[in-house]
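wait is this the right file?? whatever heres the structure
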């Protein structure tokens, strides 16, 4: 069968890579894809002009099912368009995707359904927002209500920083309509983990656990990014914690959405803060897989991804099971010069490590023109390796990263350090 993956990042390359391994999949179309998917066997890039045009393509090519990677197509209603055309697609509808596209929606949903999260209030008026900050004190967290490509959250250490963020969003319109409402949230301390499941609207199948590194520089310094590396499993998620997250966060969310008449089908990513008390609290929901978490997760998946996605589309995830490689997978992101503020485009990629069974280079911001690979954006590659320990996976991944050559390449040298502290 032919399948379609929507998106063009490292996450989508990893999804396409797994789907292409399925014995039943003859072709994976990727819209719009990247330089890596352009030159992979059994993958072909196709244009993504509009949801309607892509649905037309899926119909005329007889695509068996479609998987959506990023949040923007989901928030624009790609699932609604495909379903209306009678096409099989895995992802939340536009209204279900509000769990990510509106922080206010997500917070009030969690409060209504008793899902553990930080206390909050929502404001459109800057004076009232500043008064709330004065009352609660710092540290405190200011979040734009809408999608802001990772720029919508300010963890303010002082009331001054909090007020500056409020003014930038509510008075100066710095984030446009996404920042016309702000959620002000209590600061939570602890360790973060990504908890990702597949949901079919009623049941949930947990994927392997993972943890990413959001800051640009070693030792979690520098600006926030989409993620500079990730590994799986995340030792912070113990079996007891895993059960607790499923019981107190994931299942109440899926049941709550169904009870609200907006059944949630798709990947669901809960960003968690694990407190010093061992209690998990929800920082945010994403209605998609994480990037770069997906790359190590897909490296470890031993089951047929196409079968799992079909089980989800058919609402029989309760009978599905996912098998995972027992080893650790660890992915190091190689980013463009100037990332995240002003990534440089056009640098020529002159050398890449060869893929092996245990080490794969997933592409993100790359393009293939006339057999030349060039840099097109922020995160360029995610070099992902499997090893018997965190240290072994790290060693193999970094050995491969050393073979990457393009001008201005930057990467962290400490991916996996939190897991190393716990293990090894
Ligand atoms: P979000 O997009 O909501 O996950 O926020 C981005 C990042 O901001 C998270 O990964 C956390 O590092 C941090 N963050 C968000 N909310 C809080 C909070 N309530 N307390 C502490 N840190 C937070
Ligand atoms: N790596 C974090 C995210 O995908 O949101």
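ok assuming it is, sequence goes like this
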């Amino acid at each position: 069968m032919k399948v379609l993956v929507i998106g063009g990042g490292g996450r989508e390359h990893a999804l396409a890579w797994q789907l292409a391994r399925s014995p039943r999949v003859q072709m994976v179309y990727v819209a719009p894809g990247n330089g890596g998917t352009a030159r992979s066997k059994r993958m072909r890039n196709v244009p993504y002009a509009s949801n309607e045009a892509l649905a037309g393509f899926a119909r005329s090519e007889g695509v068996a099912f479609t998987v959506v990677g990023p949040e923007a197509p989901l928030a624009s209603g790609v699932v609604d368009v495909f379903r209306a055309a009678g096409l099989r697609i895995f992802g939340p509808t536009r209204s279900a995707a509000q769990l990510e596209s509106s922080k206010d929606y997500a917070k009030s949903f969690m409060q209504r359904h008793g899902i553990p999260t930080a206390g909050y209030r929502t404001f459109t008026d800057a004076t009232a927002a500043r008064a709330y900050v004065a009352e609660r004190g710092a540290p405190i967290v200011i979040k734009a209500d809408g999608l802001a490509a990772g720029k919508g959250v300010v963890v303010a250490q002082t009331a001054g920083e909090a007020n500056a963020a409020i003014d930038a969003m509510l008075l100066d319109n710095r984030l446009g309509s996404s920042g016309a409402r702000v959620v002000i949230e209590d600061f939570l301390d602890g360790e973060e983990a990504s908890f990702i499941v597949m949901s079919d609207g009623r049941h949930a199948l947990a994927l392997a656990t993972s943890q990413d590194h959001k800051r640009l520089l070693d030792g979690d310094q520098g600006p926030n990014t989409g993620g500079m590396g990730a590994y799986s499993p995340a030792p912070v998620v113990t079996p007891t914690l895993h059960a607790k997250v499923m019981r107190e966060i994931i299942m109440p969310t899926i049941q709550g959405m169904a009870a609200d008449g907006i059944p949630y089908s798709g990947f669901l990513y809960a960003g968690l803060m694990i407190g010093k008390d061992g209690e998990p609290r929800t920082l945010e929901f994403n209605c998609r897989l994480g990037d770069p978490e997906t790359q190590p997760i897909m490296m470890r998946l031993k089951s047929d991804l196409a079968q799992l996605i079909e089980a989800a589309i058919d609402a029989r995830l309760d009978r599905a099971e996912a098998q995972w490689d027992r080893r650790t997978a660890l992915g190091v992101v190689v980013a463009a010069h100037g990332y995240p503020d002003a990534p440089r485009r056009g640098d020529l990629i002159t050398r890449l490590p060869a893929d092996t069974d245990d080490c794969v280079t997933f592409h993100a911001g790359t393009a293939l023109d006339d057999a030349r690979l060039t840099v097109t954006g922020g995160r360029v590659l995610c070099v992902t390796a499997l090893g018997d320990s965190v240290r072994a996976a790290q060693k193999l991944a970094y050995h491969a990263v050393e073979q990457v050559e393009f001008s201005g390449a930057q990467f962290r040298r400490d991916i996996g350090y939190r897991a190393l502290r716990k293990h090894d």
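The two ends are 43 Å apart (CA to CA). so i think its the right one actually
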